[in-house]
Design brief:
The protein has helices at about 10-15, 20-30, 35-40, 60-65, 70-80, 90-100, 105-115, 125-130, 140-150, and strands at about 5, 30-35, 50, 85, 105. It has about 150 residues and is mostly helical. Strand 2, helix 3 and strand 3 form a beta-alpha-beta unit. Helix 1 (about 10-15) crosses helix 2 (about 20-30) and helix 3 (about 35-40) runs antiparallel to helix 5. The protein is globular and about 45 Å long.
């Protein structure tokens, strides 16, 4: 059974900034976002990104993790599926996902996965593009990613 892929805003914005949004499509096919994320994204959505409202009655409880509405809505939607992957970069949202037993991956994890699946040959050129954006990333994390994919 194929996983349902739900994305928060940050990954979409980052991959759009580095002009690699199609990499997400190549990795996963369809991606689902919530109306809250659509509002945060502000840009035109490609046809392979679908908008779906969450029905989770625990949404307000999730907001208590001090998450923004997009992150909280993505987590609420993820709770509706048994087999999903949440794409999220925010540390608080990742901790909340972990506590709620939601599988998650961040933007850099997506690059690692893309290389593992042979969707890209090298991760470093993508990291170089990311470093030109306002995405916060430490030198230690860059080294870890490059070491993980054998590009150190």
């Amino acid at each position: 059974m194929q996983k349902i892929i739900i994305s928060d805003t940050s990954c979409l914005i980052l991959f759009n900034k580095i002009q690699q949004l199609d990499l997400l499509h190549n990795l996963f096919g369809e991606i689902i976002i919530t109306p809250e994320i659509e509002t945060e994204y502000l840009l035109h959505l490609p046809s392979w990104i679908k908008v779906q409202k969450h029905r989770n009655i625990n949404y307000n409880k999730i907001l208590q993790f001090t998450l923004d509405p997009g992150e909280a809505s993505a987590i609420a939607l993820a709770l509706e599926y048994k087999n999903c992957l949440l794409i999220v970069d925010d540390n608080k949202a990742r901790k909340a996902s972990e506590q709620l037993n939601i599988e998650y991956l961040g933007s850099l994890g997506l690059l690692i996965k893309a290389k593992e699946l042979k969707k890209i040959r090298h991760v470093k050129p993508y990291l170089d593009l990311i470093l030109k954006t306002d995405f916060r990333i430490t030198d230690e994390l860059i080294s870890f990613v490059l070491k993980t994919v054998g590009e150190n």
